[in-house]
Design a protein that fits this description.
2 domains; Helicase, Ruva Protein, domain 3; 245 residues; alpha+beta; N-terminal domain of MutM-like DNA repair proteins; 4-stranded antiparallel β-sheet; DNA damage; elongated; metal-binding
């Protein structure tokens, strides 16, 4: 599943279609896709891992699936049928392995923009208050909670915790104030680092813990385990990442 920074990049890449009318619609989605025909794109927006197409009277929400969600602009996958394809007079957008649905309400009534780590409305003080209200939550679960850190995915989770030297099984309530602030600060900072590296096609070169075998700080094997309520893969060092409980 693309993480928040990748959705922001998608939003930037489709700007040539802004203000354009949807002239062709196809795909194997079960939604009433014909409803999109002749609709004018008023804006492209993103919230966390959601890609949003705002139309005059409703919006389209796209949520890419774990591992296989992807898109193509002005090209297609010859071996796969898109979930939804939108054609314009200057190109097309093909969406694969994703969930698509309509949102009838204004997006500002549906989404909490202050929770999106990539948003200009991101509020770190609000995030810190919300985090403190979940003292029994494991920090590995808290970082993946989209109500707290919309856009943070498993890569960012693993890299943030390694960067701030916090063990994924630490509980939020046990974290010292400094480390708690670092969780909030680095969730946003690493997301923007991810965004820059992704645009330069060097993201994986900067991974220090995610999918790695050896700790670059300690030179010992990293641990790999499916942890927390989310049961997502965690890569961490038992030596330099402190367990707070």
């Amino acid at each position: 599943m693309p993480e928040g920074p990748s959705i922001v990049i998608l939003k930037e890449q489709v700007t040539p279609f802004l203000g354009k009318t949807i002239e062709r619609v196809s795909g194997n989605t079960t939604i009433e896709k014909e409803r999109l025909l002749l609709q004018r794109v008023e804006s492209f927006r993103s919230w966390g891992k959601h890609f949003l197409v705002e139309l005059p009277d409703f919006s389209l929400r796209v949520h890419f699936m774990l591992l296989f969600g992807s898109y193509r602009i002005n090209e297609d996958k010859s071996w796969a049928v898109p979930r939804l394809s939108l054609g314009f007079d200057n190109g097309e957008l093909n969406l694969y392995a994703c969930s698509v649905r309509f949102i009838e309400e204004p997006l500002d009534l549906v989404y909490d923009w202050w929770a999106d780590v990539m948003s200009e409305h991101w509020d770190p003080k609000l995030a810190l208050r919300r985090l403190r209200a979940r003292p029994d939550t494991l920090v590995c679960d808290a970082l993946l909670d989209q109500d707290l850190f919309a856009g943070v995915g498993n890569i960012i989770k693993n890299e943030v915790l390694f960067r701030i030297k916090v063990h994924p099984l630490s509980t939020v309530g046990a974290l010292p104030a400094k480390q708690l602030r670092q969780v909030v600060e680095q969730a946003r900072q690493y997301s923007f680092d991810f965004y820059e590296w992704k645009k330069q096609f060097v993201l994986k070169k900067h991974w220090l813990a995610h999918t790695k075998r050896t700790c670059p700080r300690c030179g010992i094997p990293l641990q790999k385990a499916h942890l927390g309520r989310t049961n997502r893969r965690s890569f961490f060092c038992d030596n330099c990442q402190v367990l707070y409980t």
